Amino acid sequence: MSNLAILVVDDDPVTRALLTKRLIGAEHTVDTAEDGVIAIEKIGSQFYDVILTDLIMPGGVDGIGVLEEAKRVNLKTEVILITAHASVDNAIEAMKKGAVDYLQKPINFDELFLRLEKILNLKMLVKNASDLREAMDVTEKTSGETIQDLEIMLAEMNTRLEAIKAALLQEDTPLETRVQMALERLEG
Q1: Are 87 and 60 contacting, i.e. CB atoms less than 8 angstroms apart?
Q2: Given pLDDT bands bounded at 50, 70 and 90, which one contains residue 1?
Q3: How many CA atoms lie within 13 A of 172 on its CB side?
């Protein structure tokens, strides 16, 4: 995973175009929506690693609405809210509802790319942990099967050894016959 699938949601076409150009230049896959209603339609039909959404948009669905729908559809989608009207209350509300971060306009692209890099690193760590858990599960299952097979083999060997011991301890039988019986039990 070297890039992120990003949905840019903003009613301002200049902001959408600027974000799209910069994100594609950083080798991310970018889709856009000009309002929250279109964003919600796209969220319902495609997975996005990150959604960059303006907080205040016309059309009945604002950035908080996009955030809520994104988290309802897939908790793995990270949402960064962008606004020109930043306030501590808005930031707290967004974080409580699951936003990973909050940016002010005009967008500082160094800050944005740093946050996207952190999201990418976190997603890679989660994937690596998941891969490791899967490998551990396979190893555990395989080792369990191997131990079970070894226990069966050990039980069979013990049974044969007991039969060989019994054959060799038959004192009323000639030694050659006892050895022959032990060899037959050894072969199985």
Answers
A1: no
A2: very low
A3: 0
